[in-house]
Every structure is written in structure tokens, then in C-alpha cells.
Design a protein that fits this description.
The complex is a heterodimer of chains A (about 550) and B (about 100).
Chain A lengths: L5 H22 L5 H10 L2 E3 L4 E6 L4 E3 H14 L3 E4 L4 E7 L4 H9 L17 E2 L14 H11 L3 H4 L7 E4 L13 E7 L5 E7 L11 E8 L3 H15 L10 H8 L1 H15 L8 H10 L13 H6 L3 H10 E3 L5 E6 L10 E3 H14 L3 E4 L5 E7 L3 H10 L14 E2 L14 H10 L3 H7 L4 E4 L13 E8 L2 E8 L11 E2 L4 E2 L3 H15 L7 H8 L2 H9 L2
Parallel strand pairs in A: 6-7, 7-8, 16-17, 17-18
Antiparallel strand pairs in A: 1-2, 2-5, 3-14, 4-5, 4-13, 8-9, 9-10, 11-12, 12-15, 14-15, 18-19, 19-20, 19-21
Helix pairs in contact in A: 1-2, 1-4, 3-4, 3-13, 7-9, 8-9, 15-17, 17-19
Chain B lengths: L3 H4 L8 E7 L5 E4 L5 E2 L11 H13 L4 E11 L5 E3 L2 H8 L10
Antiparallel strand pairs in B: 1-2, 1-4, 2-3, 4-5
Classes of the chains: A alpha+beta (about 550), B alpha+beta (about 100).
The complex binds protoporphyrin IX containing FE (HEM) and iron/sulfur cluster.
């Protein structure tokens, strides 16, 4: 866990009273909507189809149990009893009343939660690996660096009025769970030959209307120089970035137009001017942040406790364990992913009751800590292996033990036309139908790792471009039509998917996905060949044939 | 969302209403003939040509304390005179999400 200091707490509290005053002036008519909009966006408040939507930050995806309970409380008291976990380590409440928002913010502030950096053209909350600090083989806890960047960029003038919003993600593992290649800046924590900690810096990733996979701008930037290097990137961006055209204002477009070589030269020039300034990070500063991240007092536990050995006889437990339980850096412990993708349910939603119950389970089994990942699932990061069977039973009672993590029904979907005012088509009902089609666990297991991503418009909040199967809703003559891509991926080998052909209607989407999956099962060379590998080997043609032969 | 100003250029193709979200709680509301807002589509003022639509929108835009983001939306009038939303988006705005909510309060 991370302990915030007095400055952070004061800042958060000041923001709440400031916003309370702004809301009051808005409701009395003293402020117009035009004047108020920028203020509400700075506090995570959007307008959706049915109501205001309130987006709350979960910095680097780490939640203490009292914070989870506060989220449950907000869902219950100010909303309709549930919240939606997003792909950027935020939670959204869909039915908040403006008049009650200051109270909700105040209740959250009591546990150190806020909505800064969740909207607007500023530096968004820096996301990280949800397994940070517990993944085996990790170089160092990447949250230390996320926190450093968060402190430096929150409310910093240079970062508060950017041409567009700006997103950074950090990973410290070989396997990238933070999707760094689709962020404006992606940082991969590495060590150089001398054993010094630093970063491979990637720049210019992003999805939306014009998707790009980030490119490496520098292979190694020493840890002490990372703030000056990021600032150099931002200065070049601020200097060139196109404020005149909202679609061209993202850094990915700038990097593309200048070319990565020219862009990196410009950054290098800028950096040489500022790298030896006050932006150089003292080892003490890092040490101070490091010391605020505390880790549980792990026990010395056996690798294979009796409880686990006995439970292995139960096929339901085993099905869940195989997909949900991952190795931990400490022997005798595991990381448990909690699927928020029940059959027939909207991906990423959790009820207040589930949140409260999860907080209780985390207190009992995970040293009071919960994580939020970009796949819209949660995780308990420190579960003793001997407790796995008991935890599984408890999760199952809550409807939180769907054994589908990383399988075809572990779908990422944006809110789409059911909630979002920008949407062209619905996303959630497509996801629900797909989870029903593939509800048979043996079938899902047979198919293996396969990620489906769904967005309700080109803004790509559901990351459809990087879904192994991507589904994008568009509107054609007043009807919902869906474009299907295959072969995308969001991990360390990130790639954009390829369109397989003309769009299909709402009712046909699940059939098309079934066709694609059947084609894959027939075409794969062996069971271990994953869907994306088959697509890579054969290209989209055979899938296209299969889907359109009968349509 | 299309801004009201851009919409001023748009000609309406059929019966329409002006809709927005109520400022204090965000719920979907419709502009009424009585220069007020109602949560009931049946109470919305119906406009049938572009001049009427522009006038109703201008009046709605001016009432910024009452509701935000007003725009013109199409409706269908049934044989019995009943007013129905003119497209899927407006239908969802009127009747709520199509998916059931995980927790009904
Ligand atoms: C419902 C209200 C929402 C609105 C109005 C909204 C709006 C937008 C817009 C306009 C963009 C494109 C910005 C750009 O390209 O510069 C965007 C991007 C994005 N949104 Fe949302 N969004 C919403 C909900 C969500 C949710 C629920 C999630 C997570 C599940 C999400 C995740 C993202 C992500 C990850 C991106 C970045 C995609 C990229 O790399 O370009 N958004 N959003
Ligand atoms: S992708 Fe489009 S429809 Fe989906 S949440 Fe984002 S803006 Fe809304």
C-alpha cells in the first residue's frame, strides 16, 4: 500500500470545497454550463445519455479495503448500487446527481480518493501493471515511478493545459499487462549493463480514430533523468501539437507526421537543455517514495500446502484455479484475478454488495489490498495458497468466481450506446450475448486465450483495435452496424487488427464470432497454437472466407 | 454531441422535440410548450418545421440553469397521437439502458 502525505490530503480536501462552491454557483445560475464544464471535467464529471457520469481515479490500480468500501458507499448512497471499472484503472458511476456530487467527493476524500486526472486535456492518471510489486521476475515495483510522475505532473502548469489529454503507462515485467504500447508515453522499467535502473521509453501510441502502436524513442533513460526526459517530450509536443484540430492534437499524430527520428532528435535537443536542472531526481526522493510503499509481512509457507492438494480433486475449483491464479514473487502466495465478467453480465460492473464483500475477503485473505487492471477485472495480490479453496468458495457465492480470465468471455467492452452520449452503437449487449454463446467452460478452455474487445464508436474506449477479435460499432442509415477485425493484440507484441470485411448487423455479431472461432479450431495446427498465432500464420483470408461465404 | 449552434443549420425532416439533461440531477428532459422542462416525452412541445425548431431550441439554450446540452431530436407520432422517440439513441434515453442493471435500487 502507499501512504499519502499531508500535502496530498490537503490538496484533495481543498479541491472538494472548491468544487462544492462551484456546484453551488452553477445551480444558482451564477455560472453558465460553458463556464462550469471545464471545472466539472477537472473533477471527473461528464454528461452521458441518462445522467452525469462520475469518474474516480484508482492510482496505479491499488485500492485499500477502506477505499473499496467508500466506493461501495458512493454506489449505494449516490448512485444505483453499482459501479463500472474501466480500462484505465478508474471506476465510473453512471447515475450521479450534480447536486450530490460534492458530498460524494467529500466521502471519497476521507479515504484519500479523488477524481483528479480522470478527464480534461491534462496528464491522466499514470497507469501501471495490476500485479506491480508482486509479479515474479519484476525488476522493481513500477508504482514507485508512477507515483513520482503523478506527484510531478498533478496540477503542474505545463501538464494541465495540453493540446489534448495525455496518458502514460508503466510496466516492469517482460509480459506487459499495462498496455504501454497504446499509450502516449509507455515506460518499460529495465536495467542497463551496469545494473542501473532506467526505462525504455516508447512514444506515440494510442487508439481512437487514428490508431498507432507506440515506437521506441530511446532504449535507455536513467531513472534519475526520467522526469526531464518526459518533460522534454511534452515540451516538443506543446510546441508543435495541433491545438486547432482536435483529431490531430494527440502526440501519436505528431510523432507520425514528424517521423520518430526527427521527433526524437527534437526531444534529445530539448532534453540536453534541461536534464541537469532541478528535474534531475535525487536518490532520496525515490527512496522516500519507495519507503511509502509497504508490503505485507509474508509468512514462510510451503509451495504446495495440503489444502491446495486436497482441493485439486474438485474439477470446478481446478477450472477456476487454472485461469484465475497466478504465481507470486513470494513462495506460498498467489495473485488471484477476480473476473467481473459473469455470463450474461455487463463487463466490468460490480455491485456495492460485491465491493463490500470483496473488501472483507481482501482483509481476510489479501492483507487488505485489492488491485484493478486494464482488463476490467480486479485482483487480490497477496493470497496464501492454503487459503485459495476457501477464497474460491466465498467468491463463488458472490458471483465472482467465473472461471474465464483470459478466455473468450473475458471481454473488454465500453459502455456504448446504453450509456455514452458519443456512441453510435451498443457494446454491452453484444458482450452479454457472446458470454452466453461461449458459456460452456470446456468449449472456452478448448479455444484458449482469446481476447474480444468491443467499442461503441471510433473513440475506441473498448480498445477494439488491439482485440484478438475487435468489434467496432458504427451507424449506417440509422442502424447499428459492427465492423470486425482480427489479429490485434495489446501486449508486448502489440499490433492493430485487420478488418475482415463489410460490417454486420447487431443480431449477426455473435454468429460471426462463432464462425471465426470455428474456423480457428479447424485451422490451428495444434491445441497450443493460440488464435492470434493462427491469424498470424494464415492471415485474415481463411477467416474472411468462412464468415462471408454464407452471408 | 452536435452543438446547438451547428444544429441551427440543420433542417428537420419530421416532427421533432428539444431534449436535454436536467442540470441538478442530469436526468433526460424535454422542452415543453409552457417554457419549462418535463421528464415525460408526452409533455414535450412538438415542432414541425425548421423555424419552429430553431425558436424552441433558442429558448431552451437560454434556460441554462434548467437543463444542459439541449438539441433537436426526431420523434414519431403514432396513429393514436402517442409520441415516440425517433431513433434508438433517443429510445434508450427515454426508457433507460437496454441491458438490465446489475443492481436495481
Ligand atoms: C461513457 C463515457 C465516456 C466518454 C464520453 C468517453 C470519451 C472518450 C473519448 C472522446 C475518447 C477519445 C479521445 C481521443 O482520442 O483523444 C476516449 C478514449 C478512451 N477511453 Fe473513453 N469515454 C467514456 C468511457 C470510457 C470507459 C468506460 C472506458 C473504459 C472501459 C474508457 C476508456 C478509454 C480509453 C482507454 C481511451 C483511450 C483510447 C486511446 O488510446 O486513444 N472510456 N474516451
Ligand atoms: S468508445 Fe465511443 S461509445 Fe464507447 S465509451 Fe468511448 S466514446 Fe463512448
Amino acid at each position: 500500500m502507499y501512504a499519502y502525505d499531508e500535502i496530498d490530503r490537503t490538496l484533495v480536501n481543498e479541491r472538494v470545497s472548491e468544487f462544492r462552491d462551484q456546484v453551488k454557483r452553477r445551480l444558482s445560475g451564477e455560472l453558465t454550463e460553458d463556464e462550469f464544464k471545464i471545472l466539472r471535467l477537472q473533477n471527473g464529471v461528464y454528461l452521458q445519455l441518462h445522467a452525469y457520469m462520475f469518474r474516480v481515479a484508482i492510482p496505479y490500480g491499488t485500492l485499500a479495503t477502506n477505499q473499496m468500501r467508500a466506493l461501495a458507499h458512493v454506489a449505494r448512497k449516490y448512485d444505483r448500487g453499482y459501479g463500472h471499472f474501466t480500462t484505465r484503472q478508474n471506476i465510473q458511476f453512471n447515475w450521479i446527481k450534480l447536486a450530490e456530487l460534492p458530498d460524494a467527493l467529500e466521502d471519497l476524500a476521507k479515504v484519500g480518493i479523488h477524481a483528479m486526472q480522470t478527464s480534461g486535456n491534462n496528464m491522466r492518471n499514470v497507469t501501471s501493471d495490476q500485479w506491480a510489486g508482486v509479479a515474479p521476475g519484476e525488476i522493481e515495483d513500477p508504482r514507485i515511478w508512477s507515483e513520482l510522475i503523478r506527484q510531478h505532473t498533478t496540477l503542474h502548469p505545463e501538464f494541465s493545459f495540453l493540446p489534448r489529454k495525455f496518458k502514460i503507462a508503466i510496466t516492469a515485467s517482460d509480459h506487459d499487462r499495462a498496455a504501454i504500447k497504446i499509450h502516449d508515453i509507455g515506460l518499460r522499467l529495465i536495467k542497463n549493463e551496469k545494473g542501473e535502473t532506467g526505462f525504455e521509453v516508447l512514444v506515440g501510441g494510442g487508439l481512437g480514430r487514428t490508431p498507432f502502436i507506440a515506437k521506441t524513442i530511446k532504449h535507455f533513460v536513467h531513472g534519475r533523468d526520467i522526469l526531464s526526459y518526459i518533460e522534454a517530450i511534452l515540451r516538443v509536443y506543446n510546441q508543435y501539437g495541433r491545438r486547432d484540430n482536435i483529431y490531430k492534437a494527440r502526440i501519436k499524430i505528431l510523432v507520425h507526421e514528424l517521423g520518430i527520428e526527427k521527433f526524437s532528435r527534437e526531444v534529445e535537443d530539448e532534453w540536453q537543455h534541461i536534464r541537469n536542472s532541478s528535474l534531475q531526481i535525487d536518490e532520496e526522493v525515490i527512496e522516500d517514495i519507495r519507503s511509502r510503499f509497504t508490503y505485507p509481512a509474508y509468512e514462510k509457507l510451503p509451495h504446495m500446502p495440503d489444502e491446495l492438494r486436497q482441493a485439486a480433486a474438485d474439477p470446478d475449483f481446478e477450472a477456476w484455479r487454472k485461469n484465475s491464479v497466478a504465481p507470486h514473487k513470494v513462495q506460498g502466495y498467489s495473485i488471484v484475478t477476480i473476473s467481473l465478467k459473469p455470463t450474461g453480465g455487463p463487463p466490468g460492473d460490480a455491485t456495492a454488495e460485491q465491493m463490500d464483500a470483496l473488501a472483507d475477503l481482501a482483509d481476510k485473505y489479501s492483507f487488505g489490498e485489492i488491485r484493478v487492471g486494464h482488463e476490467q477485472n480486479l485482483a487480490l495480490p497477496h493470497v496464501a495458497k492454503r487459503d485459495l479453496p476457501a477464497l474460491w468458495k466465498a467468491l463463488d457465492k458472490l458471483g465472482l468466481a467465473t472461471p474465464n480470465v483470459n478466455l473468450i468471455t473475458d471481454i473488454i467492452a465500453c459502455p456504448g450506446l446504453d450509456y455514452c452520449s458519443l456512441a453510435n452503437a451498443r457494446s454491452i449487449p453484444i458482450a452479454q450475448e457472446l458470454t452466453r454463446r461461449f458459456a460452456n467452460h470446456e468449449l472456452a478452455n478448448l479455444i484458449g486465450r482469446l481476447h474480444i474487445n468491443i467499442s461503441g464508436c471510433i473513440n475506441a474506449c473498448g480498445h477494439h483495435h488491439v482485440g484478438h477479435i475487435g468489434i467496432l460499432g458504427v451507424e449506417k442509415n440509422g442502424e447499428e452496424v459492427y465492423q470486425i477485425t482480427i489479429g490485434g493484440r495489446a501486449d508486448e507484441n502489440a499490433a492493430l487488427g485487420t478488418l475482415i470485411g463489410p460490417g454486420v448487423k447487431f443480431d449477426e455479431v455473435a454468429d460471426v464470432v462463432e464462425d471465426i472461432v470455428e474456423a480457428y479450431l479447424a485451422l490451428r495446427e495444434r491445441p497450443e497454437e493460440l488464435f492470434m498465432d493462427t491469424v498470424k500464420r494464415l492471415g485474415v483470408e481463411p477467416f474472411k472466407e468462412r464468415v462471408y461465404a454464407t452471408r | 454531441m452536435t452543438s446547438p449552434l451547428e444544429q441551427k443549420k440543420i433542417r428537420i425532416a419530421g416532427p421533432s422535440v428539444v431534449t436535454a439533461n436536467r442540470t441538478w440531477d442530469g436526468i433526460v428532459v424535454y422542452r415543453t410548450a409552457a417554457k419549462s422542462w418535463s421528464a415525460e416525452l408526452s409533455e414535450a412541445a412538438i415542432v414541425r418545421n425548421s423555424d419552429e425548431a430553431r425558436a424552441l431550441l433558442a429558448e431552451a439554450v437560454a434556460d441554462d440553469v434548467g437543463a444542459i446540452g439541449p438539441y433537436i431530436a426526431p420523434v414519431q407520432i403514432g396513429d393514436d397521437g402517442k409520441v415516440l422517440p425517433g431513433n434508438l439513441r433517443e429510445q434508450i434515453r427515454r426508457t433507460g439502458v437496454t441491458i438490465g442493471q446489475p443492481a436495481q435500487v
